[in-house]
Amino acid sequence: MGIEDKIPQGVLLTTVEGIFGWMRQASFWPATFGLACCAIEMMTYGAPRFDAGRWGQEVFRASPRQADLMIISGRVSQKMAPVLRQVYDQMPNPKWVMAMGVCASSGGMFNNYAIVQGADHIVPVDIYVPGCPPRPDMLIDAMFKLRKEIVMKRPIGAHELEEIEAQEKAALEAMATHEMKGLMR
Amino acid sequence: MSPYIPILGIMVLAAGFLGVSVVASLLVGPRRYNRVKYDTYECGIDPTPAAVGGGRFPVKYYITAMMFLVFDVEVAFLYPWAVNFDALGVFGFVSMMIFLVVLGVAYFYEIRRGGLEWD
Question: Mean pLDDT over all residues of chain A?
Fold first, then answer.
């Protein structure tokens, strides 16, 4: 029925967005995509010392169907790229992606033919966390920023439909990443 | 009966909560269709094609099933006899032995007819 898409514009929509955003960021379930060394730091992030359970994130869902956030922690190889895309596609909306570490953000120290130079070639990334690997403190900071600046402000209803249209238009006119010059590709 | 009423109440509440949340998300949730999202999940790879005809079992398992049934019922009769062995005396012993001999004839028949050959 999609009643959420039919909420009328105006103050009501903004208030509902605020409420939904608060609820989503308060119980944000990560789907781990632990690929390499950054996964260790992600495990530490969930472990008792840097407790992720304080913010409702101790359940790292194994199945993408139950997850909100995909933390790509580690280098994405050419062989893993279609798997990454498939798991991302199988997550239900709303979903967010965090590229943890330099390998997921830009290929990191592996500037070669085997490693995809940044997970944003494959999935749209919301927040990049630098570091090799980033300390769990840095991951906590990134989570806070993600929750405050992106999750709380996610549009719903008519605003979301407009945003989807705008993104599709922009994607159809954007330059392909392999044609961009001036970067170390 | 009365100590179990709260448990029944909790079960009803849980079922109600389940129903309400499923129905509410069906009605309120937006529809964002994506072919891969509705595909089977298999850790990110394309799912293995399912077996033809639903993965049928070879028919030769039916002998195993039948034999299991017969001997399982026999064991079910043996258990109470074994528990009350002392109280039943010689009469109980002899009658159970006759029962076992009758079933033993069936077992002997099965062995000789090749029911325990697998191929």
Answer: 88
